[in-house]
Fold this sequence. Notes:
Blueprint: E1 3-9, E2 13-20, E3 25-32, H1 39-56, E4 59-66, E5 69-71, E6 76-79, H2 92-100, E7 104-108, H3 109-120, E8 128-134, E9 138-144, E10 147-149, E11 163-164, E12 167-168, H4 169-173, H5 175-186, H6 194-202, H7 206-230, E13 234-238, H8 245-259, H9 262-265, E14 269-272, H10 279-292
Parallel strand pairs: 1-4, 4-7, 8-13, 13-14
Antiparallel strand pairs: 1-2, 2-3, 5-6, 8-9, 9-10, 11-12
Helix pairs in contact: 1-2, 3-10, 5-7, 6-7, 7-8
Amino acid sequence: MEKYAVFDIGGTNLKYGIINDNGEIMTYREVPSEAKKGGAHVMNGVVRIANEYKMDETVKGVCISTAGVVDPERGIIVYANDNIPNYTGLNVKKIVESNVNLPCEVENDVACALLAERFAGVAKNSQVTLCLTIGTGIGGSLMIGDKVFHGAGNFAGEVGYMDISGEHFEKAASTKAMLDKAFARKGSKEEIDGIKVFELARLGDAVCIEAINEMCDCLARGIANICYIINPDLVVVGGGITAQGDYLLDIINDKLGMYLIEKIRVNTKLLFAANGNKAGMLGAYYNFFRRQR
Length: 293
């Protein structure tokens, strides 16, 4: 059985482990990415771990999912924000292959989440799929058939920058936006996290219910705008928000019906992602497998 080292590089955490050629994650670890120390520091850690795996396991390659805009053909970070300083321009593929002496493939983290859903999740039968990951920001990716659409400069899917009522989509519809509103309206000195907001909402707290509903409304408006352009048959919602899927799915679906004309709405399914926290790693493997074979 062949094995592969898989990494999911984020601005907060680095997830990594071993996956086999059946797509089963055999080992899994999560540590702080220390991204504020810069892209080179993050890659030094990835190289070190990959070399450790190479010594202890019969690994055949390195599969990477990462934050930032990625050119998957060359394995270069085309653009990254300040969450990972000095990451823009790094040739991740070259760094790994020259320091680990194993083949490496690199793809954007939202594209990897979408690949995971396409091959081992809710998007198996979809032909035009939009994937959004909702967390501190909003990321997007589009798949036509079984191929990720990257656009002319690999920026396709950067929907967080869309304008929704005078502000960026991710500023209006992310979980961070929802938390900021709930915290401000509560007027409490005690910090409120996402879990607490949903706990209070389930108990009938009017402030938390309102903040969640506003987030869902902005999210539905943004999704509707994208749907008018690309007309997907499936919208997959992933990220940390999926932990509250039982509470949110019906709300978002109802609000989406307010913003999409019926002819489009009836042919657009919205589902929450199935692969959870390990979607990036799983998608990184599928990206490697497709590009290498």
